[in-house]
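task queued by scheduler; priority normal; single chain, no ligands, no partner chains; default sampling; output format set to structure tokens
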Amino acid sequence: MNLIVLFYAGIMIATGLLFGKIAKYLHLPNVTGYLVGGLLIGPSILNLVKADAFPGLEIVSTVALGFIAFTIGNEFRLSYFKKVGTRPLVIAVLEATFGVLFVFVGLILYFLIVGDLDNTTLRFSLVLAAIAAATAPAATLMVVRQYKAKGTLTETLMSVVAIDDSVAIVLFGIFVAIANAIAPEAANTPLWIQILMPFYEIIVSLLIGGAIGLILVLGCIWFTGRGNRISLVVAALFLTIYVVDLVGGSQLLAAMAMGGVFANLSKKYEEVNGLIYFVTPPIFIMFFVLSGAELELKVLLVVGLIGVLYILFRVAGKVFGAWLGARVTKAEPKIAKYLGWALVPQAGVAIGLSLVATQVLNPDLGAKIRAIVLSATLIYELVGPVITKRSLKLAGEISVKG
């Protein structure tokens, strides 16, 4: 019996705990510590977690992303959105869309200027730009709770981050489908199939996730014990991921749909979500540490300018999109002025989408995108919470000192 995977899992959890604690002492988000710790024990530095172990550890990322998407889905409570209206949805769609468009246009202009625009770099630009939509809800909400922020900007911000990653997943699915459609090997695929594939992926994912979410609702009525309900959620999530992958759907969208159905139809969703928090910490720690371990420092040497463009254009796109969304929905001036800046943090879902990107493009370009996203995540997670705090403070919604 080969137990080396258990060794790697133990090393990653221990590393995450240690560096998460160090990050807290330095007043940084825990995820930053996890990524740095992963980089340290990965092949680029200490090589405690070797490169040939990554394929066997992919299941960690898959499960972690499933739980992240399920949690996002739980934020889609119809009763809440009936109360706040369509404003958060409009803003979320516009800030995510313009984040993607700004990065895509910036990258295309760059490749035109350097004379390197071809089918390969076009596909690269599509996939990397699609990741720009994602935000890190955990980092944003952490700042809100830590400083006890209150007000219309805070309420809108919390609604937008609940929607943002679901919009990001949809945009990513569409852009990746386009990148696949223009791949040389897809030249013989009928155009109508290329156009319908993204919609097939979205619809089948929502249907499967929704159906299993309904089963989860009924199961939580029958099973009343805490342990049974935790086990039921884990089983439902695992089955959702497997079935949707089997039919070519999106695991993230399906898990999100499962969470949305559960949150809207089950009276026990808050209690069950509280129980899930006891299951996910080691999974998330391994996910982020593994993501850091997979970062190759040598790749960073060749992604410099493209990485800078990604970081700057993503922020510019989100700030503009949030401003436009606020103006269109006639929101308060402070929402238009500050909301976009509070959406800078980017972490979990973006890292997961970069993992998918490695399966869409060739290994070299896939590794390049992953390096860019991980590098950007380190920067966003370092400065993002500070910018979020500053935005809320300038809007007059933080009264706690610190």
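post-processing summary
- The chain has one domain: 58-394.
- The two ends are 52 Å apart (CA to CA).
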